Amino acid sequence: MQLKFDYNNIMQYAIGVQGVKDAEIAADMPLMQKAFDEVMSAGGNGWQEWMRLPDTSDAELTSILQDCESIRKKAESLVVLGIGGSALGPLSVLNALLHLRHNELPAKKRAAPKFYIEDNIDPERMRALFDVIDLNTAYFNVITKSGETSETLAQFLIIYDALKKALGKKEAKKRILVTTTIGKGTLYNIAQKEGFKIFGIGNGVGGRFSVFSAVGLVPFAILGVDIRALLAGARAMAAACKNPAPQKNPALITAYLQVKSMQKGRNISVMMPYSDALKYMADFYCQLWGESLGKAADKTGKQVFTGQTPTKAVGVTDQHSQIQLYTEGPFDKVVTFIGVDNFRNVQPIASDPDIDGCGFLKGQTLNDLLKFEKRATRFALQKALRANFTITLPEINAHTVGELLQYFMLQTAFAGALLNIDAYNQPGVEEGKIATFALLGRTGYEQKLEELQQNLKSADYLIEQ
Amino acid sequence: MQLKFDYNNIMQYAIGVQGVKDAEIAADMPLMQKAFDEVMSAGGNGWQEWMRLPDTSDAELTSILQDCESIRKKAESLVVLGIGGSALGPLSVLNALLHLRHNELPAKKRAAPKFYIEDNIDPERMRALFDVIDLNTAYFNVITKSGETSETLAQFLIIYDALKKALGKKEAKKRILVTTTIGKGTLYNIAQKEGFKIFGIGNGVGGRFSVFSAVGLVPFAILGVDIRALLAGARAMAAACKNPAPQKNPALITAYLQVKSMQKGRNISVMMPYSDALKYMADFYCQLWGESLGKAADKTGKQVFTGQTPTKAVGVTDQHSQIQLYTEGPFDKVVTFIGVDNFRNVQPIASDPDIDGCGFLKGQTLNDLLKFEKRATRFALQKALRANFTITLPEINAHTVGELLQYFMLQTAFAGALLNIDAYNQPGVEEGKIATFALLGRTGYEQKLEELQQNLKSADYLIEQ
Q1: At CA A281, angle to CA A343 and CA A124, rounded to 5?
Q2: Rg (CA), chain A
Q3: Which residues 119-138 of B have a C-beta within 8 angstroms of A?
Q4: Contact A125 B330 (CB under 8 A)
Q5: Position A111 confidence tier, pLDDT thresholds 50, 70, 90
Q6: Chain A residues near residue B100 by CB distance under 8 angstroms
Q7: Is A17 on the interface with B (CB under 8 A)?
Q8: Of the listed A21, A184, A362, A433, which one is catalytic?
């Protein structure tokens, strides 16, 4: 494991009554042991199939790489059509490992196709996409685990239609790669009938835990990410988190400290990477943490309405937006800083003897300034008795990114076990889905449509001019 | 006022005990009246000078437009160097009003220069910028209200040095436009000495309330945004919010309902636009709401540790990430939906008789699908007794964007008055700034450096391998 974890500033000796006591950790050892056993014993089975993904065989990786190689060479753009777990894994990794302005690089400076992760159905965004890609050289990876996601199916229909009109049906078929559960679902059936290339997702791999399946690996391979190093990183983290001693197990101890802090009233979890490349790692975490742990009932069926609300901040940017609140507002959050020891380049701050008033920046680099600000912010939060901890990557590469993603997933799994909830379902989104079907006029949803139409709305609470 | 406000779903008749009662509104009328009077009587003076900005004279606007016209024609890229309030206003408006993939459009399809809002000091991001802009055709707008922001000064030193090396000092000077407080601060002094073009910010205009000052207007004018329509929108909203009847004053009633909900335990405010173009409006709101209201003490000096934590979600995208938590988790948030009646284009969903299983999308448009999902989500949240309200824009244009921004600022001002706190300072960021100066080795900060070095850290709470 190359990542380092520092949880000093969530402990009572650092932040007083807001913190967790050593005695609490000691008393809760059996709880942690139970959560550890639960996750480890189920590991790889049922909805924990994602735990097997880092061990994907080399033969399988070779096969994916071979399938993607020709596309990598032919494509000028790769567009992912997907939402939620089908988008955030690809987005977080590609933003971390490719050039930060990859799509704007001139073709000769870019070793890989441009990429677009289309995770919304905003018509203006769809038009914007058509304005900048060339259908003659674009490939589309349609990703939905269930094969039934309305948004993704809608995007697919639009794109396939445009491709057929531009290139003819025969060529259009070659431009669509489908990633879905093999053997079931609307998208699978369409792909079979039309003859699209299909990549499978295991039955027990949920969307938000699917980044190391074909969901991530296919776009990564096309964009030239070192998928072997990524999975090696995931394996290194998995190994570190097999340690049954909580204080040596980063995912287990931080899951516990978060849950404990939540029970003490810290219902907000801020994920704050000090790196633009790691910006979407925070979004990946936010989905995982929010959707997995936000549950009305526990495993016994008891109403618990639990969950810690994740939110993203970016350092140093949000020091000028959110740190005032984090330092002085309610004691309602835990801040996780993600730092990077060595960036992939060094940017000196030029000093000019003619320029007055900037002497304090003389001889410094942006690298050090960013690092100092992170350390200073961490210090200021601790002085204000605000719970925080820090994860440090030696540098950003496929291996460390693999470690970080696997850590997030394991931490979430442990937190789910500690809360005794099902971290793998999402019953709360059903009502909205059904209501959407009703509004679309789908047969069988007439009663829901009536309920929607009768839904209360008083003009007293409207303001219009 | 073209915006519509619907606060049905925050009232008790819609969401039960979680909601606000009519009787509470009635009882709190004097409080609202007091807050209204406080904001209105100070309007335009002291730190409320921002309230005068929508009335900027036509002569002044003409002068800004004239100054920017030649840059607009010559520049291939405009780079804003700024952070916090100096970045979020420009970013939110430009993302709303320009093409969603503006920088990727071929030059002949783009009526304005490419734009970059550089609001971080990540060295990898600075390198990425140099990789995609051409210094021969780039202009830089350096924005800092105080003229002392370390991050912006560091960026400026790097850029000015690069410009001088590439173009010579004489030409380099023409490429820097400075926006700062006239007459004071390091950046002002440098600009005077070097002969940069300077745009002023009024003394009483704080960073997060500065979008309608030169901070926003200069980049908007260069990028071709209709600044007259933007300010007309701001004036329309200002007029609507001069209504002393709270229930007809959108900023006042929603400020009250948020504050009241916060006092009932809803310490999280989710801003959720259903539009990619409005994505950064949520960031604009998050700074404003978080930094203005997150305060340790009220105006009497009493410790209050108040503030509601703002967080951003994007519809429909985050339905697949956060809605599970919002629907089933704790009753700890108020969700504000922002909807758009008419998008700037219509995207039909193609239907193909050969494609099975997608019949329910037949004859639909992305526009309707998005709108149905918004309505369905709002309905599902209300059914789960979750507080929410909805703001609707008839369409996204300079006028409605001006209305929305002015609404956010007025709502924040009213909320500050209701909480009896100073919404215009940010004392909580001082400790971090001082600690950064100490780490930079700045003279006068030796004691702080010692404090930092002695700062507690136990190896017991580190995990490294």
Answers
A1: 115
A2: 24
A3: 119-129, 131-132
A4: no
A5: confident
A6: 124-125, 128
A7: no
A8: A433
| pTM for the whole structure | 0.98
Query: Does residue A320 carry a catalytic annotation?
Result: yes
Q: Would you tell me which residues 372-401 of chain A have a C-beta closer than 8 angstroms to some C-beta of chain B?
A: 372-373, 375-377, 379-380, 382-384
Q: What is the 3-class SS of chain B, one letter each residue?
A: CCCEEECHHHEHHHHHHHCECHHHHHHCHHHHHHHHHHHHHHCCCHHHHHHHHHHCCHHHHHHHHHHHHHHHHHCCEEEEECCCHHHHHHHHHHHHHCCCCHHHCCHHHCCCCEEEEECCCCHHHHHHHHHHCCHHHEEEEEECCCCCCHHHHHHHHHHHHHHHHHHCHHHHHHCEEEEEECCCCHHHHHHHHHCCEEEEECCCCCHHHCCCCHHHHHHHHHHCCCHHHHHHHHHHHHHHCCCCCHHHCHHHHHHHHHHHHHHCCCCEEEEEECCCCCHHHHHHHHHHHHHHHCEEECCCCCEEEECCEEEECCCCHHHHCCHHHHHHCCCCEEEEEEEECCCCCCCECCCCCCCCCCHHHCCCEHHHHHHHHHHHHHHHHHHCCCCEEEEEECCCCHHHHHHHHHHHHHHHHHHHHHHCCCCCCCHHHHHHHHHHHHHCCCCCCHHHHHHHHCCCCCHHHEECC
pLDDT surpassing 80 at residue B315 = yes
Give the tokens for residue A270. 């801020």
Are B123 and A329 a contacting pair at CB < 8 A? no
Q: Give the tens place of pLDDT for each residue, B82-112.
A: 999 999 999 999 999 999 999 999 988 998 9
For residue B39, whether the previous peptide bond is cis, meaning omega lies within 30 degrees of 0, is no
- Angstrom distance (rounded) from CA A146 to CA B206: 49
